[in-house]
Amino acid sequence: MTTPDLFEGWTPEDVGPEALSPGAVLLRGFVRAEAAAVLAELDRVLAHAPLRTMQTPGGRSMSVATSNCGARGWVSDVAGYRYAPADPLGGAAWPTMPRLWRTLAERAAAAAGFGGFTPDACLINRYAPGARMGLHQDRDEADFTWPIVSFSFGLPAIFLFGGLRRGDPARRISLFHGDAVVWGGPSRLAFHGVAPVKPGEHPLTGACRINLTFRRA
Ligand code: MD3
Ligand code: FE
To answer: Whole-model pTM above 0.90?
Structure first.
């Protein structure tokens, strides 16, 4: 039996764009209405490029299960982190990015002041209960003037939002089903992570959290 949790299943109010810090904009519920359609496309993408746990360059297994779609996909193995044009599992090109996903990501970026953002990579992360992501920077992209757009679905998570140095204190920000966040400007190279996801059930995803991050590789 898991402990009943009032947090689970709670839906926050949409209050319009909220600046978390310069360049970081939380769009609460921005993709909630389209969530079922977005997740239907996810099944199609994952049928071509299944979720897998990647290895860090240090040889450890990530707790998050990962895949990609778009012209390029982010991969990690003993050789390091990079964007690759093909899935190392099987060698085929990554599945194309669903038009709906790209359109929603472009709209979210524009709503946060980043008009003209056209993602060419979408990293898919699935968190089972207990999965987490340690503090890191996203710095494998060519041009940090483009933001990263993230969509959260399913179980809620506590997002850790630090500063530009690893040791800077991290704020804890709750992210819920249907939330979008745009990370650009001075926040683009901020350290960030995700606290271990708590057990629970969501009507659309079951016992997991899905995060999509849209990038210009
Ligand atoms: C802040 N994913 O895939 S999304 C990642 O929830 C990643 O799966 C987390 O960090 C997740 O790299 C967090 C939010 C996010 C993504 C990119 C950022 C926050 C960011 C880049 C800069 C600053
Ligand atoms: Fe990241």
So the answer is: yes
| pLDDT at site 16 | 82
Buried b (16+ CB within 10 A) or exposed e, 141-152: beeeebbbbbbb
Neighbours of ion ligand 2 (CB under 5 A): 138
Say how far apart CA 205 and CA 185 lie, in whole Å. Answer: 32
Which ligand 1 atom lies nearest to the CA of residue 190?
Answer: 23
Determine the angle formed by the axes of helices 35-48 and 99-111, rounding to 10 degrees.
Answer: 130
| Residue with the two structure tokens 């969509």 | 151
Mean pLDDT of 110-139: 97
Q: Is the CB of 123 under 6 A from ligand 1?
A: yes
- Give the CA dihedral 44, 49, 53, 58, nearest 10 degrees: -140
| Domains located in the chain, CATH noted | 17-48+97-215 (2.60.120.590)
First to last CA, the chain: 43
Spacing, Cα 193 to ligand 2 middle (Å)? 7
Distance CA 179, CA 149 (A): 11
Ligand 1 atom nearest to CA at 125 = 8
Altogether, the residues listed in the chain come to a count of 217
